[in-house]
Structure formats: C-alpha cells, structure tokens
C-alpha cells in the first residue's frame, strides 16, 4: 500500500510567536523527527505529526522533502528511495 503525503505548513506554534515568553518546554510542540521542541515560527504537519522544516527528510538519502513525501512504517522517503526498495505491501 503506497502511503503518500502532501506537506502542509503551519505558522505561529504559540499565539504571538514569542517563544521566549515563558512557555514551559512541556507545553511546546515536539518535532516527530528529532523529538526536540519546535521553537521556529513555522512547522510542517506531515502524517498528522509536527516537524521542524529541516527534519522533514528522506530517511535513506537525507534529502529535504519540500512538497511531497512517501512513508512506510512511519518513516519518510523521497519518491526515488521509496520505489527503489519496492512496495512491500
């Protein structure tokens, strides 16, 4: 089964976009890629999870995924690497 996602951007993680305004780290949204808090002004929503823009990359070749990505077992791939390994489902 081919899993394909379109990347969508979302701005202002917290109202006002002032991340130094005393928000506790526990209140911050964590990146699905690096598991660090997202302090950037923008984040990407991929497969219903929040990501830093720099963390949305192919797990094989590490290229940045800017418009589309493919997934298998929760891992992100570029089109080339996804089809290189074949569709196992």
Helix content: under 10%
Architecture in CATH? Ribbon
The fourth-level CATH homologous superfamily is Cysteine Rich Protein
Strand percent estimate: 25-35%
| Number of extended strands | 6
Q: Based on helices, strands and strand pairing, what is the structural class? A: mainly beta
Order of helices and strands: EEEEEEH
Instruction: Tally the structural domains.
Output: 1
Look up the CATH topology: Cysteine Rich Protein
**General shape:** elongated
Number of helices: 1
How far apart are the termini?
5 Å
**Class, according to the CATH hierarchy?**
Mainly Beta
| Largest sheet, strands/sense/barrel | 3 strands, antiparallel
Would you write up a description of this structure?
Helix content is 7%, strand content 27%. The protein is mostly beta strands. The protein has a single domain, classed as Cysteine Rich Protein (Ribbon). The chain starts with a strand and ends in a 5-residue tail after the last helix. About 11% of the residues have low confidence. Keywords: DNA-binding, Homeobox, LIM domain, Metal-binding, Nucleus, Repeat, Zinc. InterPro entries: Lhx1/5_LIM1, LIM_Homeobox_TF, Znf_LIM. Its main location: nucleus.
């Amino acid at each position: 089964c081919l899993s394909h996602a379109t990347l969508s951007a979302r701005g202002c993680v917290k109202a006002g976009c002032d991340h130094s305004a005393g928000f506790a780290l526990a209140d911050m949204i964590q990146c699905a890629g690096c598991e660090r808090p997202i302090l950037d002004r923008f984040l990407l929503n991929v497969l219903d999870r929040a990501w830093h823009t720099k963390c949305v990359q192919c797990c094989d070749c590490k290229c940045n995924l800017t418009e589309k990505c493919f997934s298998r077992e929760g891992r992100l791939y570029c089109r080339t690497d996804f089809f290189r390994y074949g569709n196992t489902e």
